[in-house]
Amino acid sequence: xxxxxxxxxxxxxxxxxxxxxxxxxxxxxxxxxxxxxxxxxxxxxxxxxxxxxxxxxxxxxxxxxxxxxxxxxxxxxxxxxxxxxxxxxxxxxxxxxxxxxxxxxxxxxxxxxxxxxxxxxxxxxxxxxxxxxxxxxxxxxxxxxxxxxxxxxxxxxxxxxxxxxxxxxxxxxxxxxxxxxxxxxxxxxxxxxxxxxxxxxxxxxxxxxxxxxxxxxxxxxxxxxxxxxxxxxxxxxxxxxx
Length: 242
What we know:
Blueprint: E1 2-8, H1 18-31, E2 39-46, H2 58-68, E3 74-77, H3 87-99, E4 103-106, E5 110-112, H4 117-150, E6 162-164, E7 170-172, H5 174-188, H6 193-202, E8 216-219, E9 226-229, H7 238-241
Parallel strand pairs: 1-2, 1-3, 3-4
Antiparallel strand pairs: 4-5, 6-7, 8-9
Helix pairs in contact: 3-4
């Protein structure tokens, strides 16, 4: 029985999409005479980091349980980093696969002999590199943000009421400044956040995102489902005012 494990982190590009990972896994199955009924897909979904612990990755948890129960004999992953970007965690999973005689096929390396000490060492070295890469990137990002801060530049999401010039130096947007002053004034006069939001919508006061032509990508925090919405349809809400 073949397991196809997939995940997509926030830093992955489009070529690493879940659809591509599943398609390539199924191509491997068909080329090796594995029937559709013998394929089990463990899709962790999008926005899942490779550094997240096993307990926070339900599909990986389920996969490991199915390995222990004898349901799986071959594991397909597009790249080693799909399994984990933590050396210790990857090594623990690797030991489980060796213990239960699981074959490992990686899309970028082929079928791996887990009984070979050389293969095991190679995988552990690559796991160390997989852990190193995001850590180094994070360090460089922090360094860059610190430099921007020291130079008076904006970093992250620029708050409502401000924009940045070509050098990333923030400046006040006069029209949005008026809206902010209005919000504070009305709140101090006794208006609630819900009423203020409603009045701003009635007066057709645009939110910051209305400046951009492209649809905005919104994510439901409970279901992780992403939707696209035209900027003109994004309204003021009580939470924004607060």
